[in-house]
Design a protein that fits this description.
alpha+beta, Alpha-Beta Plaits, five-stranded antiparallel beta sheet, two-stranded antiparallel sheet, At4g02000-like, DUF4283
Length: 144
């Protein structure tokens, strides 16, 4: 029934999908106080906090385009045709990089092992996302 679908009843509970939509802070004690670093606003996190936050991105990949990237809707359509089994979220990082987050390890491994893809003349290289991602440096981490 339409009202059931709209109200969200009888839908499967997917904690991964819900976590992606949530901006809720676990506790007000976890809200960080802003400071400055080299004259710029900043928030400092411990290594443990960084790893905890990075855990949500454990199945994230960075796609680097040799030239201008395609339209994100075009990229979503092409990625969806790869036969991935779980949810996929795609978003821009900067001019040449796109972040792809998948919801399971099989999809993550399958994409990462490809190393390179090309859709309609848009060549791209696939790297594993890490907390210290730097768009100026290609990751030396390779699938084994």
């Amino acid at each position: 029934m339409y009202s059931t679908a709209v109200l969200g009843r009888n839908r499967e509970h997917d904690p991964v999908r819900e976590a992606k939509k949530s901006f809720q802070v676990d506790s007000l004690n976890e809200v960080k106080i802003a400071s400055t670093y080299k004259g710029q606003p900043s928030i400092t996190y411990s290594d443990e906090e960084t790893m905890h936050l990075a855990d949500r991105l454990r199945f994230a990949l960075v796609v680097k385009f040799s030239h201008e990237p395609p339209n994100l809707n075009f990229l979503r359509q092409r990625i969806n045709k790869l036969g991935l089994r779980g949810f996929v979220t795609i978003g821009p990082l900067n001019f040449k990089h796109v972040l792809i987050m998948v919801s399971n390890e099989d999809d993550f491994s399958g994409l990462w092992l490809r190393g390179e893809l090309s859709f309609d003349g848009f060549p791209m290289r696939i790297f594993r996302w890490t907390p210290d991602f730097d768009p100026q440096i290609e990751s030396p981490i390779a699938p084994v």
